[in-house]
Amino acid sequence: MAKRDYYDVLGVARGASADEIKKAYRKKAKEFHPDRNTGDPNAEGKFKEANEAYEVLKDAEKKAAYDRFGHAAFEGGMGGGGGPRGGHPGGQGDFASAFSDVFDDLFGDFMGGGGRGGGRQRAARGADLRYNLRISLEDAYRGLQKTITVPTAVTCGSCSGTGAEGGAEPVTCPTCSGMGKVRAQQGFFTVERTCPTCSGLGQIIKNPCPACHGQGRTEKERALSVNIPAGVETGTRIRLAGEGEAGMRGGPTGDLYIFIEVAEHNLFQRDGVNLYCRVPVPMATAALGGDVEVPTIDGGRSRVKVPAGSQSGRQMRLRGKGMPALRGGGQGDMFIEMAIETPVNLTTRQKALLKEFEGLSADNHPEADSFFGKVKGFWDSMKS
């Protein structure tokens, strides 16, 4: 079967620039790579065809010969010595050379973004730590200084974090010569992997520290003093830079994140900077009006005037008696929700007075009259 035109294989015009040819080849190589098309038996052939085309068109001399003579330039009669620079364009050595141009694009995600010829990894940074801290609503109102105990990895004192006995410096890894990566030829491919000897660090320790076994850090509990600002709420995150886990072999220390959880309160409910408190009000006080005493989050108390005829659910606001804003900006409010309380365990005299009151109050229930008027209208509409 006749070979396809190399320009058609890559999908570019004959006047395409070198960058356009390279870009087109990368696209085809990714599209037809056998590892990405395990279910397509034709993918490998198309992949090799694209590679062969690119091997010719990326080279100025080979491209000029191809533009003049076509495929005949590489069939022994035109190129001399098997084509410009020798060798068939689809040969194994040239295949690896061409494929190396797009190696990073195809496998960069799997190799950790290191790329070809990348240097060794830096000493590993320590992990960030999380500490969950539960505090009361009063503490969230006032703010507090609290000491916490955090189990973590700290720099080994015996080797000063180097991981080597006596604090000696690590030596260059002989396997990867300090690069942290090794290459292996697998057929057409040159595969780059993390060095198995040094785990990508580029250095090894000849005599590991007996205290930390070459890790450069040891497990220990630390006591830390944490400043909890006033106004924090559940979900607030406090970052303590450099208070996390120590890095491997002298690597930088991670951070400590403290996540705040504010416990529920038995009197107050919180909504942002505002507080809500449900206060029972005697039926007589609600009907006649009067005062009730309510608590405040600062430990004080306030007297609230109850207007005559108050109903359950009515709210009264105490300005500035809520929670402080976390980063300044004033104070929230406290809302008192009235819960009208019906008396229980009535005496004979109390029952008699209430019955007398009921007889005198037949026309004094505006909310009930409104509700049952709506109910009657609803029933009448259902009948019709």
UniProtKB/TrEMBL annotation:
Residues 5-70 form the J domain. It comes from the Bacteria. Keywords: Chaperone, Cytoplasm, DNA replication, Metal-binding, Oxidoreductase, Repeat, Stress response, Zinc, Zinc-finger. Zn(2+) 1 binds at residues 156, 159, 209, 212. One of its GO terms (molecular function) is oxidoreductase activity. Residues 305-324 are annotated as: Disordered. HAMAP family: DnaJ (MF_01152). Belongs to the DnaJ family. This is Chaperone protein DnaJ.
